[in-house]
Amino acid sequence: MGVTKGWHARLELGYAPSAGRTMPVHRRHVGPLLVQRAFHPEGEVCHSYLLHPPAGVVQGDTLEFRVDAAPGSHALVTTPGAGKFYRGTGEACVLQNFHVAEDAAFEWLPQETILYAGSRARLETRVSLQGTARYLGWEIVCLGRPAADERFESGRLVQRLSVERDGRPLLSEQLVLDGGGAQLDSPWGLQGQPVTATLLCTVDFDAAAGEAVWDAAGEPQQGLAGVTVMDGLLVARYLGPQARYARDWFIRLWAALRPATFGREACAPRIWAT
Fold first, then answer.
1. Can you give the pLDDT at residue 207?
2. N or C terminus: fewer CB in 10 A for the chain?
3. Which residues does residue 30 pair with via DSSP β-bridges, in sequence order?
4. Rounded distance between C-alpha atoms, residue 150 and residue 119, angstroms
């Protein structure tokens, strides 16, 4: 059997302050991974929309996305639609590396990632912070397509997430799920829920203040959720039936966290309204 060769796409973005606002000062891409022009709906902060024109990831594809936020910069990156992993016998990968310098801020707010039944996906996100760097980001993964009554009966997900500050690990975790496996339905696993999601935010408050954030955001409309604060990192988890409930709850958390973390009220990217 021959080896399937897919796309190998890479996008590098560098942000830095310029004339009173953050601008993309470096952009390099290989393959079908692009970014639209910069938007500044709230003045200083640069909003960017990450685009993958093929709209899906298939066997053999590797997408690499790197962000470097220079001191004093503040960038927000989102996506116009859900990412999709299609069925295949080989693995497809999305690798993300975010480097946030001293006194810089970065927000990573993508739409959900959908794993079709039979897909084999590897998702890795690594966040490297320096000094007083601030970060808020989320990952929403939907196993199968609940709206089409498709369960994740076959395939595999390997998801890795790590955050470090000045070389010291704040969070390092790995999730491995096999399609049709016991983890999907067991009480100690996903309890039959197809959507699992994590939000991370650097904070300078304790667990008691985290309760206030929970109160401000409220509970998700459907599903299970929780918030933990430890070592300067707030971790919010969601487990539920549909990605939209995770996304809506995360947006409320983002609105509650943004003033304290970034000194700004929430300003939703325009693409979310389309």
1. 65
2. N
3. 10
4. 12
A 10 A CB-CB count for 121 gives 26
Tokens 């096999």: give the residue.
178
Q: What local confidence, expressed as pLDDT, does residue 223 receive?
A: 96
Which pair of tokens denotes residue 249? 């709850």
Instruction: Please report, as a single letter, which amino acid is at residue 148.
Output: A
* Amino acid type, 114: I
pLDDT digit string (tens) for 41-60?
A: 999 999 999 998 677 888 88
Contact 62, 93 (CB under 8 A): yes
d(CA 140, CA 232): 22
Residue with tokens 């990605």: 243
pLDDT digits (tens, 9 = 90+) for 107-131: 999 999 999 999 999 999 999 999 9
Closest C-alpha among 108, 106, 46 to residue 83: 108
Q: Which 3 state secondary structure label does DSSP give 106?
A: strand
Specify the residue for token string 């936020």: 69
Residue entry with tokens 């990952």 = 139
